[in-house]
């Protein structure tokens, strides 16, 4: 059904992505088939506050990697519309100059309430892009502030994008985002305060314990993405980090973390569906009113829901 996907057919890859988001059995069966052949692509995670220039930086990296002939996939995570549940920003619009490039596949995903800056489907979509032929997969998080931590487990290299004069460097320190970044990028570095932002981040990094040669020490770079400045150096450091990950075995560690994240997300999704089924079909239809009026407590209701799930499993 999805055979053309493996020949680089973008429409078929998009169809599988749509079907897996909708939970179709045929799509799940296909994911089981392609899973053993995935996990080798480089996944570059890009996170940072709104307005930091993440999408423009993504656009520059697409051009950088396409110049060497590599196929590139982009997973752009957008906030969900409160009405339709769909993505509301549309990063594909901001990367529109690559729309006609057959070697580039850009997919926007809505968070749909998933915390951590990612969509639950991000792991599946990345795997499909790899099966499509992408050697480089760029994942841009939603950029909601201080919660984009899941990207660390999904990506093989994580970039935190900051901008001078907006207090981003302080927020990064507060959020503990020092533990997420492999590379800090001070974008819009032609603005006043770029050097101070670099020094602030450098000062915090110097406070870290001596971690030795086996652990990557985050790099700090300056870019002006809309002018394509600093992209070559960023590409070089990305390559250095990839080699470091491969030679030190950290690439395999990240692969295990990515597999764990995917498994837990699938389990949570399945359990939530079972809970929804019990709420809809097996509880008193007036349970909301009774809960609000204190005729029943949430603890007893929880026990009833779990009992219903366990009864189905044993029945």
Could you characterize what this model shows?
This protein has 315 residues and is of the alpha/beta class. The chain has 2 domains: 40-248, Rossmann fold (3-Layer(aba) Sandwich); 263-314, no CATH class. The protein has 12 helices and 7 strands. It has helices at 10-21, 25-34, 54-66, 91-94, 122-132, 151-154, 168-174, 194-206, 231-248, 250-281, 287-292, 298-314; strands at 42-48, 72-78, 104-110, 136-140, 157-162, 183-186, 219-222. Strand 2, helix 4 (91-94) and strand 3 form a beta-alpha-beta unit. Helix 1 crosses helix 2 (25-34), helix 7 runs parallel beside helix 8 (194-206) and helix 10 (250-281) crosses helix 12.
Task: Please identify, by name, the CATH architecture of the largest domain.
Answer: 3-Layer(aba) Sandwich
Shape: globular
Q: Please, how many helices? A: 12
Mean pLDDT: 83
Radius of gyration: 22 Å
How many domains make up the coordinates? Answer: 2
Here the CATH topology of the largest domain equals Rossmann fold
Q: Low-confidence parts, pLDDT < 50 over ≥5 residues? A: 80-91, 113-117
Helix content: 40-55%
Order of secondary-structure elements: HHEHEHEHEHEHEHEHHHH
β-strand number: 7
Report how far apart the termini are: 35 Å
What structural class results from the helix and strand content? alpha/beta
């Amino acid at each position: 059904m999805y055979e053309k996907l493996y020949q680089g057919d973008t429409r078929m890859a998009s169809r599988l992505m749509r079907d897996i988001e909708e939970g179709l059995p045929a799509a799940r069966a296909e994911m089981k088939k392609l899973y053993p052949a995935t996990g080798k692509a480089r996944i570059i995670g890009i996170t940072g506050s709104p307005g930091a220039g993440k999408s423009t930086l993504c656009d520059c990296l697409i051009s950088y990697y396409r110049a060497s002939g590599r196929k590139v996939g982009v997973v752009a995570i957008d906030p969900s519309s409160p009405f339709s549940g769909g993505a509301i920003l549309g990063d594909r619009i901001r990367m529109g100059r690559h729309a006609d490039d057959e070697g580039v596949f850009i997919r926007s995903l809505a968070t749909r309430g998933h915390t951590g800056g990612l969509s639950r489907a991000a792991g599946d979509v990345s795997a499909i892009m790899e099966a499509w032929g992408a050697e480089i997969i760029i994942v841009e998080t939603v950029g909601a502030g201080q919660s984009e931590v899941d990207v660390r487990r999904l990506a093989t290299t994580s970039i935190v994008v900051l901008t001078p004069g907006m207090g981003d460097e302080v927020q990064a320190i507060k959020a503990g985002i020092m533990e997420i970044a492999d590379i800090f990028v001070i974008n819009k570095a032609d603005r006043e305060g770029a050097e101070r932002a670099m020094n602030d981040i450098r000062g915090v990094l110097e406070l870290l314990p001596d971690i030795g040669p086996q652990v990557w020490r985050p790099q700090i770079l300056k870019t002006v993405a809309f002018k394509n400045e600093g992209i070559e150096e960023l590409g070089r450091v990305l390559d250095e980090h990839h080699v470091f990950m491969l030679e030190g075995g950290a690439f395999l560690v990240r692969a295990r973390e990515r597999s764990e994240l995917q498994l837990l997300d699938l389990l949570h999704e399945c359990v939530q569906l079972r809970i929804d089924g019990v709420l809809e079909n097996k509880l008193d239809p007036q349970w909301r009113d009774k809960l609000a009026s204190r005729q029943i407590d949430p603890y007893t209701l929880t026990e009833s829901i779990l009992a219903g799930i366990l009864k189905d499993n044993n029945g």
